[in-house]
Request: fold
Amino acid sequence: MTVRDVFELRKQGRIEEAYDAIRPIYANDKGPYTSLAMFWTATDILKKRLNEGHIDEAEKIFAALERMFPNVPDKDGMAEKAFRKCQELLKKEPYHGKHLEDGPAHLQTGRWGEELAAAYLRENGYVILERDWHSGHRDIDIIAQKDSTIVFVEVKTRSSRDILDPIRAVNRQKQYNLILAINHYLQYKHISSAYRFDVITIVGTPDGITPEFEHIEDFPLAQPSYSGGRRWR
Reply:
């Protein structure tokens, strides 16, 4: 099976076959022609999954599209148009889908907040690279890219400020853990480009009125008491 065969399957409307065929090819070859085939078959299958009601799978495919899109050749702008169309289709789905209805109330609120934050970032020109990235027991809620800058995002959601102002939850211990996780990601991905840390705070509930929303760019992280070769500036 070749990339040309994949395009032929897609032309014939054999979407599932095209998607199954391109994935192993793309795993070994991420050149422009293969990336283009992977992109178009992924957009096809995303729309199909939405029509089938498989929202969670469609969201995972879109996350993969976001990582892939910057490397897809797009001289005529058609790929960007298709990408934005998929984004618009996903926006029509409720943020608090079935996967947000499981678990304790505070976890539901947190997941809802992260969905809102990811949607906000996309709408403001960020490309989502990772969601809930783990380094041992430490995690980073969202890793995004804006232009040439990698942006690590902590999302803090509270149902009310009476509980705790969300920004106060980014305490010193949390900051130390974030520094360790961020440095791990930078080293693991061999990233040497510019990066920063942002905090997005959300106060509200999924079934409430419009939530309070704040995006704090380049939030200062406290330095650990020891260097240990950390890369954090």
User: Anything to note?
Assistant: Strands lie at 127-135, 138-146, 149-158, 195-203, 212-216.
